[in-house]
Amino acid sequence: MLRVAVVGSGPSGCYTAQNLVQLDPTVRVDVLDRLPCPYGLVRYGVAPDHEKIKSLQGNLRTVLEHERVRFLGGVRVGVTGGVPVERLRELYHAVVYCVGAAADRRLGIPGEELPGSWSATEFVSWYSAHPDAVDAGFVRDARSAVVIGVGNVAVDVARMLARGAAELRPTDMPQQALTALAASRIREVHVMGRRGPSQARFTTKELRELAGLPETEVRVEPADLALDPACADPSALPAAQRRNVEVLRGWSDAGGRGAERSIRLRFFLRPVELLAEGGRVGAVLFERTEPDGRGGVRGTGRYETVEAQLVLRSVGYRGVPLDGLPFDEESGTVPHEAGRVLHSCFGAPGDYVAGWIKRGPTGVIGTNRPDAKETVASLLADAPALLRREVPEDPVAALRSAGIEPVEWRGWQAIERAEAALGARLGRSVVKLADWNSLLAAARSGP
Ligand code: NAP
After folding, report:
1. Which residue from 20, 140, 313, 379 puts its CA 20 to 30 A from 414's CA?
2. Alpha-carbon torsion 77, 82, 85, 90, what sign?
3. Would you state the torsion angle of the CA atoms of residues 40, 42, 46, 49, taken in this order, to the nearest 10 degrees?
């Protein structure tokens, strides 16, 4: 009987476990996560107001409750103080790493480290109650915010900055973040793309949602659209980009409504420097760009400054190397062939990857399904060779003897009950626990 460890309980980890149990009638799968809570970015990345996407947790839950799947939370792998990759290889016939892309890409410009400048991930982690997040007073004393990048994360954070208390209250956002966002005095959110509207990475559904925010107007500069040849005639664009351009064109024609808050979508402006004012960020200096005819842009030597007391850098994620696994610095991924980890020397069969650590931080949640399927097909094709190795009957005993006490499914269910009870006390629905102590205390308080 094949014993597999899946490291990471986000969508790619859960789809990997699902494929394994569907295709192999005897396989046993342990899904390990460094956090005591499952679901990865579905819990800690999907915006709290995106209830429909969040409801995917129900599907992932079915996988983790399968009789041959076991959730083991609070288990770190491949990092100091955690279970070494080599040890995991001894405990399982195969290990599939579905660890995502945990770091942020950097801008590499002066002023990036100023107080008031944060990666979008830090902000998202805070309002999503990630236990490693810091409450950095993101919106305190800010009137204007700049979001750098025009992907779906940029749209998410812009939307969260513009939402009012009435809309945030029904979400599962932690109480501190709700209080801070409800008191926010940010009235202008500038979302800045370095290339043109037709090259923006957001999806049209997410883009359109911005226009539905109460007391908020969305503004697009006609001059930005005029610079992009594809905006004049979008007919040759792929459908997704064409729809984006059509929406943006509609907004640029609409003019201002004089709403309480505004989201301004700007293009052809690349960040050059974050400027300080009173010891923290006060503005961002951008260089105007223009299309270079090859899909990129070139600088024009003309500059523009945008006031901002909060800067969120939303320029994509990056994979993080794990000790004991190869890593390609350029792409921030683990080198693989159809999901099989490519070690530079022989001697470590049984390592696989799926999800963002395999293909890079692209695609939506559903993209992980075919991705996981490919990896599982490789793993099951290798099964006869993998099964030649003896592994212990129950790896949890080995983890315990190494001083690791995993949070099992009933521990997670106890966290869920504690979050429901907290919500009831606050007169809200479920409210997430936001720190390690509360999560672990709740997990260990199970019946
Ligand atoms: P992304 O889609 O890769 O977008 C990154 C943005 O940052 C791009 O506009 C990029 O511009 C810009 N950028 C990169 N380096 C830059 C620099 N040095 N200066 C200025 N701009 C720079 O990344 P993401 O928004 O983090 O999203 C990651 C993935 O998660 C995506 O696949 C996304 O669709 C997915 N996601 C989906 C949802 C949803 O479905 N609701 C929500 C959140 C995230 P260039 O194009 O010019 O490089």
Report:
1. 20
2. negative
3. -130
Q: Which residue intervals of 361-429 are DSSP H helices?
A: 368-386, 395-401, 409-425
- State how far the Cα of 114 lies from the Cα of 128, in Å rounded to an integer: 23
> How many Å apart are CA 445 and CA 447, to the nearest integer?
7
Give how far the C-alpha of residue 188 lies from the chain's centroid of Cα atoms, to the nearest Å. 24
The residue nearest atom 17 of ligand 1, judged by CA position, is: 107
- DSSP secondary-structure letter at 283? E
pTM for the model:
0.96
Q: Which atom of ligand 1 is nearest to the CA of 365?
A: 40
Give CA separation, 78 vs 125, 316, 388, 427, in Å.
Answer: 22, 23, 25, 41
Residues 6+ apart with CB under 8 A from 157: 120, 123, 124, 147, 312, 314
Domains annotated for the chain, with CATH where assigned, are 3-102+317-407 (3.40.50.720), 106-313 (3.50.50.60)
C-alpha 211/C-alpha 341 separation (Å) is 44
Measure CA of the first residue to CA of the last residue in the chain; give whole Å. 32
How far is 44 from 279, CA to CA, in rounded Å?
31
User: Rounded to whole angstroms, what are the CA distances from 27 to 96, 115, 345?
Assistant: 14, 50, 28
Lining ligand 1 with CB less than 6 A are 105, 107, 148-154, 156, 193-195, 199, 201, 206, 270-271, 314-317, 361-364
**What are φ and ψ of residue 242, in 5° steps?**
-60, -45
- Residue closest via CA to ligand 1's atom 29 equals 362
Closest of 93, 126, 101 to residue 6, by C-alpha: 93
What are the mean pLDDT values of the chain's consecutive 10-residue runs (447 residues total)?
98 98 98 98 97 94 98 93 92 98 96 98 98 95 97 98 95 97 97 98 97 95 95 94 96 81 97 97 98 95 98 97 94 96 76 98 95 98 96 93 94 98 97 97 86
